[in-house]
Amino acid sequence: MPFPISFNSMHDERHENTSRLIKIINGRLIRDHKIVEDDVLYIYDGKILDSQNYFFSANGDVPDEIIDAKGLLISPGFIDVQINGAFGSDFSDWQGEENMRCNVDNVAKGLLKYGCTSFVPTIISSKSEIYQKVLPVLKTRKGNKTNGAEVLGVHLEGPFIQSSQHGAHEVSHVRTAPNGFSDFVETYGLREGNDHNIRLITVAPEVEGVLDSLKDLIRIGVTVSIGHSSATVAQAEEAVEKGAKSITHLFNAMQQFHHRDPGIIGMLGTTRIPRPYYGIICDGIHAHPNSIKIAYDSHPSGAILVTDAMAAMGLPPGDYTFGGIPVRKTADDKVEVIKTGRLAGSVITMDSCVRNFKKFTGCSIIEAIEAATLHPAELLGIQHIKGTLHAGADADLVFLNEDLRIVRCFIAGEEIEI
Amino acid sequence: MRLVIRQDYDAVSEHMAAYIRDRINEFNPTPEKPFVLGLPTGSSPVGVYKNLVKYYQNGELSFKNVVTFNMDEDHPESYHSFMWHHLFKHVDILPQNVHILNGNAENLDDECKKFEEKMKAFGGVELFLGGIGPDGHIAFNEPGSSLSSRTRVKTLAYDTILANSRFFDNDISKVPRMALTVGVGTVMDAREVAIIITGAHKAPALAKCIEEGVNHMWTVSAIQLHPKALIVCDEDATLELHVKTVKYFKSIEHVVNDLIGAENVGLQGNVLY
Question: Which NCBIfam families does this chain map to (chain B) (predicted)?
Answer without folding.
Answer: nagB (TIGR00502)
